Amino acid sequence: MVEKSLVLIKPDAVERNLIGKIVDAYESNGLKVIAMRLLKVSEGLAEIHYKEHEGKAFYKSLIEYITRSPLCALVLEGENAISEIRRINGATDPKAAEANTIRSLYAIDKTENSVHASDSKESALREISLWFPEVINKLELEHIS
C-alpha cells in the first residue's frame, strides 16, 4: 500500500551536511520525496510536534535541541513507507541500530539521532498536517475526486 510519512532530518545531521546522504538513503530504497523544506523550527511548533512527551524529564532538552538550528522536513511516499522509513532509520538508540541504517551511520547518541519519522498512519497524518498542511489539503482533494 502506498503511504506518506513525515521525516525530519534533525539539526545535528543538518549541521554536519548530511541532508543529501540521508535523502539518498530513502530514494535508493524506492521512496519518493513529495515535499521538502529547510527551516528553523519555532518553539511553538516543536511543542505541538512533541506534545506527547510534555512533562517527561527529557522534554525541555528535546525542544531546545530541535529548535537550536535548521532542520530539513520532508514528506516521503512509497510502498509501506512508514515501516520502510523506520527500517532505513534504524533503532532510536544508535548503539542498538542495525548496521548501515541512518542512525548507525550518522547518529551521535540517542538524543542527537539525526532523523525522526512518523510511527503510524495516524501520526503521519497529524505530523504532515503540522509541517506541510498544503500536502494534506491536496491529499484530501485527491481523496474526494
UniProtKB/TrEMBL annotation:
Its main location: cytoplasm. Its EC number is 2.7.4.6. It is found in: Cytoplasm. The active site is at H116. GO terms for molecular function: ATP binding; metal ion binding; nucleoside diphosphate kinase activity. Its cofactor is Mg(2+). Gene3D superfamilies: Nucleoside diphosphate kinase-like domain. Keywords: ATP-binding, Cytoplasm, Kinase, Magnesium, Metal-binding, Nucleotide metabolism, Nucleotide-binding, Phosphoprotein, Transferase. The keyword Nucleotide-binding applies. Belongs to the NDK family. Major role in the synthesis of nucleoside triphosphates other than ATP. The ATP gamma phosphate is transferred to the NDP beta phosphate via a ping-pong mechanism, using a phosphorylated active-site intermediate. Homotetramer. This is Nucleoside diphosphate kinase.
